[in-house]
Amino acid sequence: MTIKTKIIKRPYMSFWDNLYFPQIIKGISITAGHFWRNLFFHTMHKLGLFKAIQAAVTIMYPEEKRDLARRTRTRHRLTKRQDGAPRCVACMMCETVCPARCIYIVAEEDPDPNIEKRPKSFDIDLGKCVYCGFCVEACPEDAIRMDTQILDIAALSRNGMKLDMNELLNPDPNYARRITKI
Ligand code: SF4
Ligand code: SF4
Questions:
Q1: 144, 98, 85: which is closest to 125 by C-alpha?
Q2: Which atom of ligand 1 is nearest to 101's Cα?
């Protein structure tokens, strides 16, 4: 069997690329073009004109937040039964399917004879999570969801990115702000 090798030439910079200034001027002209276009249309919108043509809008995040689509995958939570206990039966399906290997579950026997197991601990390391949603898809009990609408995830250490079972059962929307203020 012959293996075909495709040789790709290294792209060399042209004379104009080496001068840099044409590229700098090009970049500035694009930025300036957007600036004047947005300024013009925002002024026209104030005067009630050209309303159909959109201009760029700056959202002052994090003070101002835009609504997320309901299906957006946001920080995880564990759902509860009516008595407040986690719905999770520690089947390990989510831990097994997770491509980032960032779910850590320790199972124990459930005192309810109708339920075989429950999680003793359930941790997710958000520092490794790739937000694929496979854990939610794999769960046979609808015990884990990614619908908290919490996107602010920050910590001062790697350990700070780990959520334990209590945090997963009771998601705190101010989690990131609380962590970064420490
Ligand atoms: S979203 Fe994906 S990477 Fe994150 S915990 Fe779930 S399965 Fe793992
Ligand atoms: S797949 Fe669902 S029930 Fe199974 S361990 Fe994960 S969260 Fe619990």
A1: 98
A2: 8
pLDDT in tens, 70-120: 889 999 999 999 999 999 999 999 999 999 999 999 999 999 898 999 999
Whether 123 lines ligand 2, by a CB cut-off of 6 Å, is: no
CA angle 138–129–170, rounded 5-degree value = 75
Q: Is 124 helix (H, G, I), strand (E, B) or coil?
A: strand
The span from the CA of 128 to the CA of 124, in Å, is 9
92 touches ligand 1 (CB under 6 Å): no
Tell me the CA end-to-end span of the chain in Å, nearest whole number. 62
> Which residues have CB under 8 Å from 3's CB, separation 6+?
none
Q: Which position has the token pair 């929307």? A: 173
Give the position of tokens 């908290």.
Answer: 148
Q: Point out which residues pair with 105 in neighbouring strands.
A: 122
Q: Whose atoms come closest to the Cα of 140: which ligand? A: 2
